[in-house]
């Protein structure tokens, strides 16, 4: 007899084995998983061997990817005093000539210190700074920061870390998401970049306050085409086998990378084992992917998967759950998690039930193998648990641990108890997607985000651009979303009816599920992509409704600020672009409203 929903949830939670996952972490703690190397292949072999031991079907995909390995870097201050400064270069940094480069240093302050992503991407932080032919020192070190320095004419960039740990974190400098196309390849970095500690960066700033500073900089970075191997396991559901939840995380790491992301690899193995153990009770399928090329190819593994099974994702994928940096020592804070608006309540409910904490689910950032926005797949989680406030460095993972992306990310930085807790959270959330008659998503919060964002842009336009068609389309979608959410609730409840009503209830469930997926496929690419459903946007900030976010450039291009013809041209060009983006947004919203009406 099939288990009840509650019984199945309790069974799944009880099946999660802390001891099983910790053994995987011990093994992975011995393997340097650098993409496209023997260590990477050894990691793949271990994943595949374990899955076969568990009886879980697995397929290994192999493909060519452009990857980059930082090799070495050195920096020396020449004036006003001589000093060697410890530094590391980055994957996809442009290398210097063998003799290095020499230049004058200039400091450019930022509003986005740390990994360095600006919320308002239209802000030009280089305005008023002459950096042409100079070496930039900045606390804004993300790929968008490097891109802005490069566009401003800088010779090289030094990223001074925002927090005080005496560690230089490994990074990737390319903004190009996945293996480049002829068009996106134009955005690969063309200048060298290195990282220094905050202490050394402040030492350089202090010298700048007293007069000119000159540096020599050398770095060596390799760029290669390598074969990457990617295991994807499948546990097939019984009722709707074609429909599936996709859960994945990156296999490659810096050094042994235990909390980023060996713990995630162990969590994925455990999810595959647990769901395989209950496969006779699963309504829908689960696919589990270990993505290569995360840190060395800018998410090239998950991007390849999206490109090559695009239509299957579009037709059948219910949710993507990204698992990165679970099970971190001291990571007990679940107050900030990520989920798209339609899955926000699901994420928050699971956290509350299993931890007792109130969490706030915010929209996912353009990072962390979020490669599935083009086909409109709902995103659930990215990172999960954090170390408490006051115990976090300015880093992009490992729960805020200072050891992130460094040689110090070893087994002692992980916690088996925390790993089991995080794995249960993922398991419960996924199970509810797999077993709910209608996927447990809500469209009204999505409509509310559309309205709030559009009203913000409308205020920014100050009458210079007409947002009326967008607001009208949103009004229709809001009304349809409220009715549809109620209908979905009734359909799910009706699926438990007696045998007489079973056929009609099942038909209603299928109709509502189909309409829900059609609506999300229409509207999520509008909400989250700039270049549309089939291209990958760069690894730089992507605001909500990114096409209409360009309204923030109206002030900068306003002809009243500059009488020259080029400024007038820029303003009119921007208005033309905004009209086309408005058409794209309106069409997506109307299509979504029609689907659920």
Annotate the secondary structure layout:
Layout (H helix, E strand, L loop, with lengths): L4 H11 L2 H11 L9 H17 L3 E22 L3 E3 L2 E2 L11 E7 L27 E4 L4 H9 L4 E5 L32 E4 L1 H11 L5 E22 L4 E11 L7 H20 L6 E8 L8 H9 L1 H7 E6 L13 E3 L5 H12 L4 E3 L16 E2 L35 H20 L8 H18 L6 H27 L4 H30 L25 H4 L7 H32 L1
Parallel strand pairs: 4-5, 5-6, 6-7, 9-10, 9-11, 11-14, 12-13
Antiparallel strand pairs: 1-2, 1-8, 3-7, 4-8, 8-10
Q: What does the main sheet amount to?
A: 12 strands, mixed
Q: CATH superfamily name of the largest domain?
A: Zn peptidases
Structural class: alpha/beta
CATH class of the largest domain: Alpha Beta
How many β-strand stretches?
Answer: 14
**What is the N-to-C succession of helices and strands?**
HHHEEEEEHEEHEEHEHHEEHEEHHHHHH
What does this molecule look like?
There is one protein chain. The protein has 597 residues and is α/β, with parallel strands linked by helices. It has 3 domains: 253 residues, Zn peptidases (Aminopeptidase), CATH 3.40.630; 152 residues, Glucose Oxidase, domain 1; 153 residues, Transcription Elongation Factor S-II, Chain A. It contains 15 helices and 14 strands. The strands form 2 sheets. Strands 1, 2, 3, 4, 5, 6, 7, 8, 9, 10, 11 and 14 form a 12-stranded mixed β-sheet that branches. A two-stranded parallel sheet has the order 12-13. Strand 1 and strand 2 form a beta hairpin. The longest helix has 32 residues. The two termini are 37 Å apart.
